[in-house]
């Protein structure tokens, strides 16, 4: 990661190297925090943050789910994000809001812990690599199952990502790019940090939120764009064998954007190359985030 000049911390612009916390921070010990991943893009009309308000609203919902009192409004956090991008002179980049519990509690009841809020911005390219964006990535079904929705709220919380980290490390150490996680029923849930889509006979399928996957904003974006483009998209349970028999497969996420999958468990997806529906999803998404699409101008919030 390339450091930037400032980090926004509790309402102040703080030099990058000074944005630190105590070792007794509750979130460090127990993972009591919520966060977002957001991208800013260099468009023909200037820097725009994609679906910034939607992300901050999800952050607010996540905080509520975990009984974390959020001091700042959605509007405050959106404004601070844009100001931070400008202060760091980033025409494009990644935005990471984080709300976490710090000092005041050591045990499992965090009632007296201080709530801290920070926003970090930095330059970040393709999460799964430019080669992956062009030609697709290799994935494996993880031995680690996705946390049940009965165990945790469907929220973007820091502590729950240890589950995804185990799956990601297992996949990478075995020579793959990404993991595909099944839920406790054996159905496909999501990647370690992305939503999953498959294509069969020109129709798009994606696991429902009830499968344990995150209610992804990029997922919603792609579903909306494909349906508006006349492509049928259905949310239903996806089985492991569906991954082997599908014609195309791709992953979506703020970091991953729209990344094709060329292989699952050493089996080629389709002909082993990104298919036409996947390429169309990539094209529509890139046009949307860069302001070239002409529809959904509400998704772009300019700095």
Q: Which labels suit this protein?
A:
eight-stranded antiparallel β-sheet, alpha+beta, 8 helices, 17 strands, nine-stranded mixed β-sheet
Strand segment tally: 17
Structural class computed from helices and strand pairing: alpha+beta
- Low-confidence stretches at least 5 residues in length (pLDDT < 50)? none
CATH class of the largest domain: Alpha Beta
Radius of gyration, in Å, reads 19 Å
In angstroms, what separates the terminal alpha carbons?
23 Å
* Number of continuous helical runs: 8
Sum up the overall morphology in one term. globular
Query: Beta-strand percentage?
Result: 25-35%
Name the average pLDDT.
96
The appropriate CATH architecture of the largest domain is Alpha-Beta Barrel
- How is the main sheet built? 9 strands, mixed
Proportion of residues in helical segments:
25-40%
Number of domains: 2
Could you name the CATH homologous superfamily of the largest domain? D-amino Acid Aminotransferase, subunit A, domain 2
- CATH fold name of the largest domain, please? D-amino Acid Aminotransferase, Chain A, domain 2
Instruction: List the helices and strands in order.
Output: EEHEEEHHEEHEHEEEEHEHEEEHE
Q: What does the model show?
A:
- This protein is α+β, with helices and mostly antiparallel strands and 303 residues long.
- It folds into two domains: 117 residues, D-amino Acid Aminotransferase, Chain A, domain 1, CATH 3.30.470.10; 160 residues, Alpha-Beta Barrel (D-amino Acid Aminotransferase, Chain A, domain 2).
- 28% of the residues lie in helices and 28% in strands.
- The strands form two sheets. Strands 8, 9, 10, 11, 12, 13, 14, 15 and 16 form a nine-stranded mixed sheet that branches.
- β12, α6 and β13 form a beta-alpha-beta unit.
- The chain is globular, with a radius of gyration of 19 Å.
- The two termini are 23 Å apart.
- The model has no long low-confidence stretch (mean pLDDT 96).
């Amino acid at each position: 990661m390339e450091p930037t000049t400032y980090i926004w911390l509790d309402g102040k612009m703080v030099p990058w190297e000074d944005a630190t916390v105590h070792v007794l921070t509750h979130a460090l010990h127990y993972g009591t925090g919520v966060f977002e991943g957001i991208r800013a893009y260099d468009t023909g009309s200037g820097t725009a943050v994609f679906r910034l308000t939607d992300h901050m609203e999800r952050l607010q919902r996540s905080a509520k789910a975990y009984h974390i009192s959020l001091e700042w409004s959605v509007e405050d956090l959106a404004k601070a994000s844009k100001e931070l991008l400008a202060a760091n002179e980033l025409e494009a980049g990644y935005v990471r809001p984080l709300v976490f519990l710090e000092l005041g509690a050591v045990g499992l009841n965090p009632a007296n812990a201080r709530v801290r809020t920070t926003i970090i911005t930095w330059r970040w390219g393709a999460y799964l690599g430019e080669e992956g964006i062009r030609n697709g990535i290799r994935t494996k079904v993880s031995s680690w199952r996705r946390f049940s929705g009965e165990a945790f709220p469907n929220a973007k919380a820091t502590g729950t990502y240890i589950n995804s980290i185990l799956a990601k490390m297992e996949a990478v150490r075995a020579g793959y790019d990404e993991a595909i996680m099944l839920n406790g029923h054996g159905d496909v849930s999501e990647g370690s940090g992305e939503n999953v889509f498959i294509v069969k006979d020109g129709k798009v399928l994606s696991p429902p939120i009830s499968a344990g996957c995150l209610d992804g904003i990029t997922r919603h974006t792609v579903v909306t764009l494909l349906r508006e483009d006349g492509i049928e998209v259905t949310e239903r349970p996806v089985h492991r064998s569906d991954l082997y028999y599908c014609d195309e497969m791709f992953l979506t996420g703020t970091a991953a954007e729209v990344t094709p999958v060329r292989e699952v468990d050493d089996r080629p997806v389709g002909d082993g190359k990104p298919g036409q529906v996947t390429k169309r999803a990539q094209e529509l998404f890139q046009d949307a985030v860069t302001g070239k699409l002409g529809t959904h101008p509400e998704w772009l919030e300019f700095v």
